[in-house]
């Protein structure tokens, strides 16, 4: 397995961005037959200009995300990219919150983007169920449109058969690294919170299996708890109320040396809120970000820090320390959902303008780093653990983990070599 430090891109981008309608709304930073996956790390090539700026041709790019209530970071990244390049160039849409029950609406929302004769690329982040079918319909009518899926909820071989490019968080490596980090922080128990719909996804069930095996290796107890699915009749309020009610019980049951992980964004804020009150550890969110759950849990107004992730992280970290949570809570320094929405759109633009290759991991990483200029990334190509087939258009990526303290510190996870056996666990 090859690991290397991603090139740091010194970016002199000056974005004139409008507020996106939220106190926690960030805008782009001014600074810029082997089952084991290929561990080639993502990285940027400084010789390529992938930082945006002048674009060639008069074309449109579409970005479809969830709503602010379901996945705020994803939406804010899309809005920031639109603010950067203009509403006349960048078209946005939102799929239903209850996308599992409104599958046809979800598919049609995505397909409708292809009605625009100037549309050249469509990005869906998160690529919820229905994205594969939508991409197939788009390719039938408009094969010229580049279809990109960010953080797919559908099986990766399935979405990879319809999309031109898929980028997901590295659920394989992170399954091990999150447990390793919890162990290094002194945790003895790991509590995994999810629900049947998520556990039916290969990415999430496989990660949970890796987490359980890592706990065995490191002498920790692995526990699975079930919480309501926010896309069911209980909705987001009901799902969040459940977490608020149950966390005190869980802390009493598992102790203050337990680390917690939830697979759903909507569960994150109430989980953090209660852990800060009752004790426990939180290594990083399913889709990590200093904006994922922390502002709401801490009651922070980040209006003045909007667009500057260094300042956002510093304010969140200071509040964590003030609440007595130093060295118990972690994140990625730059929002994954935000970076993925904006970065994949940037990559699509670079490809259309002839600056990048669509399925080149280095070019993908360079576009992501426009929105995470100081981040250390690692990643791999996706290999199906059952068939051993490696996909050329599905990439798994992750940032180093930052533990907030006084002072905080990176865990160096981007440089850790994950034991080979974890790449074949399914």
Descriptive terms for the model:
13 helices, 14 strands, alpha/beta, 426 residues, disordered N terminus, four-stranded parallel sheet, 18% strand, seven-stranded mixed sheet
Report a brief summary of the structure.
This protein has 426 residues and is an alpha/beta fold. It has helices at residues 68-85, 103-112, 131-141, 156-160, 171-184, 196-199, 202-218, 235-254, 265-278, 294-298, 309-322, 336-352, 361-369, and strands at residues 60-65, 90-94, 119-127, 146-152, 165-169, 189-194, 221-226, 258-262, 281-282, 329-331, 377-383, 390-399, 402-404, 409-410.
What does the model show?
- The protein has 13 helices and 14 strands.
- With 426 residues, it is α/β, with parallel strands linked by helices.
- It has a 7-stranded mixed beta sheet with strand order 2-1-3-4-5-12-11, sandwiched between helices.
- Strand 3 (119-127), helix 3 (131-141) and strand 4 (146-152) form a beta-alpha-beta unit.
- Helix 2 (103-112) runs parallel beside helix 3, helix 5 (171-184) packs parallel to helix 7 (202-218) and helix 12 (336-352) crosses helix 13 (361-369).
- The protein starts with 59 loop residues before the first strand and ends in a 16-residue tail after the last strand.
- Mean pLDDT is 87; it is low at 1-50.
